[in-house]
Amino acid sequence: MYKVLRMIHLTAGLVGSLLVLLLSITGILLNHRSLIGYSSNTAMRLQELIFALHSGNVGNTSFVWLTDLGAICMIVLSISGIWMWVNIVLRIKKRRGKLK
User: Fold this and answer.
1) I need a labelling partner for 43 at 20 to 30 A (CA). Which of 7, 29, 68, 99 fits?
2) If we measure between CA atoms, which residue out of 58, 40, 35 comes closest to residue 48?
3) Is 59 contained in some domain?
4) Which residues cross the membrane (predicted)?
């Protein structure tokens, strides 16, 4: 059971981290638009693309489910991490004879 939970934790961590990384980078670029530029047409198109990536809509394609997947991965990562930590603490206490 622990090995399966650990694999779920690692997979959710990897997938979720990549999605959160994408959202974080696009969020920073949206907050600091001076990094991209304001005036040129290329800068405006780049800002529109970054906003589309951040919101989950590029062109006529909606991939909001991808941002939802990132959120679900973070939830799974948090729950499985807490579960594994509690499991380790209980095993250490049991080994030391404090928990029977």
Assistant:
1) 68
2) 58
3) yes
4) 7-30, 69-90
